[in-house]
Amino acid sequence: MAKIALITGATSGIGRACAEKLAANGYDVIITGRRADRLASLKEEIEKSCSAHVLALQYDVSLKTEAMNAICSLPAAWKEIDLLINNAGLALDLKPIHEGNPDDWDTMVDTNIKGLLYTTRLVSEIMAGRQKGHIINIGSIAGKEVYPNGNVYSATKHAVDGLTRAMRIDLMKFGIKVSQIAPGAVETEFSEVRFKGNRERAKKVYEGYQPLKAEDVAEAVFFVANLPPHVNINDLVIMPTAQAGSYFFNRK
What are the residue ranges spanned by the domains of the chain? Predict the structure, then answer.
């Protein structure tokens, strides 16, 4: 019987790469996101390329009622979730604190922190009842360090770092693994979202060096998720070779 993985924010980037990697390696996958067309496209692509079963759930992780209704409405055959990948998250703009947009702050806090919590609340309850499961939170090097003008985004990822460690303690007695994977620069839609569609500005973020690809992070997720039952990776930081910290790059 195939294991079941639920991936939030699966319509692009790391989430999409994780769904593809897991589906190609024996998992049935629940893919979630806000964009119905992308969910449908990903479901079709996976089911054509391998034998995995795919369930698409359209909901916004930052909306408590939507998130909880989506998890509660899972068909019985899909409720025994073995792996939860809390991937959904975003950064908005790059401004010093005194020039920041409070609406952007709200969106980052609601998505990166509350969104993780809402889905985790119900999935972890299911896992606790089964006395097994694995939760992998996608953090960031921004949750280990800070950088100029990254204030609120960095704060939300520091929260993910803290929540991961707290969840590890709370869920250990149920045999549930909890891990964080914290990437450095990954070339996805991340910077385009941050700069609100400004592709030229987003492109400059990755100039002069080779950033990580979404597939690189998915490989790390797969590794962490498929270790023996007695092994848990608490925290894994993955960086491009040309990046030594959140603000230190070897650009050529």
Answer: 3-247
